[in-house]
Amino acid sequence: MEVLRPTLININGRIYRKNVIKEQVYQDEDEEDFSYSGPVTTQCVDEPCDTLSMEQTEKGYRYAMDVPSVLYKYIIGKKGETKKRLESETRTSINIPKQGVEGQIVITGQQRGAVTSAVTRVEVLIESFRRKQPFTHFLSFALNHPQIQERFLKFKEEVLEQCSEDHGVDSSIFQNPAKLHLTVGTLVLLNDMEVTRTCELLQQCQECLHDIIGGKPLPLEVVGIEYMNDDPAMVDVLYAKVQAKDGSDKLQVVADQLVERFVTAGLMVREWDRVKLHGTIMNTLFRKDPSAEDKGGSGRPNTKDREAFDARSILKKFGTYHFGEFDLDAVHLSQRFSTDCTGYYTSSGLLKFL
Description:
Layout: E1 7-11, E2 14-18, E3 22-25, E4 34-37, E5 42-44, E6 55-57, E7 60-67, H1 72-76, H2 81-90, E8 93-95, E9 103-109, H3 112-130, E10 137-142, H4 146-163, E11 181-187, H5 192-203, H6 206-213, E12 218-227, E13 237-244, H7 250-264, E14 279-283, H8 292-295, H9 312-318, E15 322-328, E16 330-335, E17 347-352
Antiparallel strand pairs: 1-2, 2-5, 3-4, 6-7, 7-9, 8-9, 10-11, 10-16, 12-13, 12-15, 13-14, 16-17
Helix pairs in contact: 6-7
C-alpha cells in the first residue's frame, strides 16, 4: 500500500510523493546515532522539481536553506554516514553549521539538477524526522474566562461531593481551571525563525476570520459534558461541550479555516477532516502528573500509564451542566511547558477577532 498510496509531504508549498526511508537503529546508541540505507527518492506531484531559486556561481550552483539546529543530526547521521551518502549520490557538497548553532545548510554542486536533487532529499529527511518531534506549540481558544473558571470549580466540588465513591474519581484528575482551553491544532516550531513565520501567518488569517464572524468577538456557551471512549464506566477523558451561543457552526468554521491555512503552509499536519473541538475538564493523565497534558509525546498517551474512572454517575447527574457564557475574542499561539501571569499558557502570538 505504501507503493500504491505513498505518503504526501508538503514542503514549503511543494507537494511530494515520498518513498520509504529505511532507518537503521543501533543498539546501545543515542537517538542521533542512526543512518539510513538506500537512496531517499521523491517525486513532485503538483509542479516540477527544478523551481528552486538558487544562486549561480563560478563553480556551479549554490543553495542555502534554513534548518533548525536540532535537526542537523538527522542529515549528518551516524558517524556522518547520511551526509556522505547524500553527497555521493547527488554529487554535491553539503555544508552544515556546528551542532547547536542556528544557521543555514549550504548545498553546492556543478550541476543545477544535482543541487536540486540534494535539496529535495534533505527537505524530505527533515520533514520525516520533524514529524517525530513532540509538538512545541498549539493554536488555542482560551476557555479560562472568570465565570467559566468559577462554574468549573463548582462542578468539581459537586462531583467530588456526590461521586467520589465511584471508581477512579478523585481531585487529581481535574483540569487546572486557569488552563481550560480548546486545542485547534498542534505545531512543531524548532527555532525563533519558525515561531516568527507562524506568527506572521496567524496575522494573515485576520481577513478570513473577519468574513466568518464579522470582526467582533464570538459569543460562546459551555454547556454539557461528554466522554471520549465507548464505555462510560471506563473513561479517560471527560470534556465540556462548547458552541456558538446563536447555535451556528461559526466556531467550527473558524477552527477548520485556521487549520486549513496552516496545513497549506506546511506548518501543521492534518489529523481529522474537521477539528475535534473539546474542552478537557477531567483527564486520567493528570492523576500522576498535573502537567501531563503539556508533556505528552506527539502520539497518543500510553494507556498502561493511566487508570480509567467510572463516569456514569457524573454523566447522569451533570450531563447538562452549564459552565457559563463568554465572548471569545482571540486565538493564541500557545507554548507548551509554559504558564503566563494569568495561569494560562504563554502566548508566542495572538490574533484578535476585533
